[in-house]
């Protein structure tokens, strides 16, 4: 028998949303994971201005290395919307703070240790350079751009995530290949006339998480439904 495609499509959409949100992988026993102890990573091979990637199961997190075991990276965070206390904001972002930051579309470009940034994941260095060829800026220019942007900022899954931040700093153009993949997934789900429920979830997620106007988003809910009825 053929499996129902609606739950599968909805699950796929949820995974794609999570990989752009940077939710950290859960650990046994519940709660938020702890970063490795200082010295876990050999930072001697990193140079100031390097673009660091940490591949995860569903997403890639990006940062700019500033030297002296410091990485600038963009993280969704609700706390900057309520306080300017740097000591509180600088604490490691928990998943709760992160998810609420996504919903409120608030974030911070923060400076953390390599251990806090990578959370035990393997690190790729300047892996995206091959995609931009002659557009790579000088290492010092990339680091200075990152340092100037440190602080509270708006957040958008599609228009201002951690990949936009690092590509602006190192290549001069804010782009996100993860966003492109996400949009391709959304288009695939909407085009599937059987995935009506998933299409509704796309529209609702757009309203809640992406800040799109209901007048723009509602057609994405009803058009697939009409196509399904017509089919």
UniProtKB/TrEMBL annotation:
LRAT domain sequence ranges: 51-178
UniProt GO BP: retinol metabolic process; visual perception; vitamin A metabolic process
Catalytic activity entry: all-trans-retinol--[retinol-binding protein] + 1,2-dihexadecanoyl-sn-glycero-3-phosphocholine = apo--[retinol-binding protein] + all-trans-retinyl hexadecanoate + 2-hexadecanoyl-sn-glycero-3-phosphocholine; 1,2-dioctanoyl-sn-glycero-3-phosphocholine + all-trans-retinol--[retinol-binding protein] = 2-octanoyl-sn-glycero-3-phosphocholine + all-trans-retinyl octanoate + apo--[retinol-binding protein]; 1,2-dihexadecanoyl-sn-glycero-3-phosphocholine + all-trans-retinol = all-trans-retinyl hexadecanoate + 2-hexadecanoyl-sn-glycero-3-phosphocholine; all-trans-retinol--[retinol-binding protein] + a 1,2-diacyl-sn-glycero-3-phosphocholine = apo--[retinol-binding protein] + an all-trans-retinyl ester + a 2-acyl-sn-glycero-3-phosphocholine
Signal peptide range: 1-29
InterPro entries linked to this entry: LRAT, LRAT_dom
Functional pathway: Cofactor metabolism; retinol metabolism
Stored Pfam families: LRAT
Active site residues according to the UniProt entry: 162 (acyl-thioester intermediate)
Location within or outside the cell: Cytoplasm, Perinuclear region; Endoplasmic reticulum membrane; Late endosome; Rough endoplasmic reticulum
GO molecular function terms listed in the Swiss-Prot or TrEMBL record: phosphatidylcholine-retinol O-acyltransferase activity
EC number, UniProt record: 2.3.1.135
A GO cellular-component term linked to this record: late endosome
Enzyme class: transferase
Keywords attached to this entry: Acyltransferase, Cytoplasm, Endoplasmic reticulum, Endosome, Lipid metabolism, Membrane, Sensory transduction, Signal, Transferase, Transmembrane, Transmembrane helix, Vision
Main location class: cytoplasm
Gene3D superfamilies linked: endopeptidase domain like (from Nostoc punctiforme)
Role description: Transfers the acyl group from the sn-1 position of phosphatidylcholine to all-trans retinol, producing all-trans retinyl esters. Retinyl esters are storage forms of vitamin A. LRAT plays a critical role in vision. It provides the all-trans retinyl ester substrates for the isomerohydrolase which processes the esters into 11-cis-retinol in the retinal pigment epithelium; due to a membrane-associated alcohol dehydrogenase, 11 cis-retinol is oxidized and converted into 11-cis-retinaldehyde which is the chromophore for rhodopsin and the cone photopigments.
Homology family: Belongs to the H-rev107 family.
Protein name: Lecithin retinol acyltransferase
């Amino acid at each position: 028998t053929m499996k129902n495609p609606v739950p599968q499509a909805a699950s796929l959409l949820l995974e794609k949303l999570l990989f752009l949100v940077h939710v950290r992988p859960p650990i046994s026993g519940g709660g938020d994971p702890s970063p490795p102890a200082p010295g876990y990573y050999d930072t001697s091979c990193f140079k100031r201005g390097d673009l660091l990637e940490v591949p995860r199961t569903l997403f890639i997190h990006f940062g700019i290395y500033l030297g002296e075991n410091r990485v600038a990276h963009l993280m969704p965070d609700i706390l900057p919307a309520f306080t300017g206390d740097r000591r509180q904001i600088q604490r490691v972002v928990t998943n709760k703070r992160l998810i609420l930051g996504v919903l409120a579309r608030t974030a911070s470009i923060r400076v953390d240790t390599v251990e806090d940034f990578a959370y035990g994941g393997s690190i790729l260095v300047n892996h995206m350079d091959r995609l931009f060829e002659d557009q790579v800026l000088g290492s010092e220019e990339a680091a200075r751009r990152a340092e100037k942007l440190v602080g509270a900022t708006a957040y958008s899954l599609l228009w201002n995530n951690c990949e936009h931040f690092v590509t602006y700093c190192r290549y001069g153009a804010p782009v996100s290949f993860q966003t492109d993949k996400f949009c391709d997934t959304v288009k695939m789900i909407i085009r599937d006339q059987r995935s009506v429920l998933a299409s509704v979830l796309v529209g609702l997620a757009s309203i809640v998480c992406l800040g799109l106007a209901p007048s723009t988003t509602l057609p994405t809910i009803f058009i697939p439904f009409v196509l399904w009825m017509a089919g």
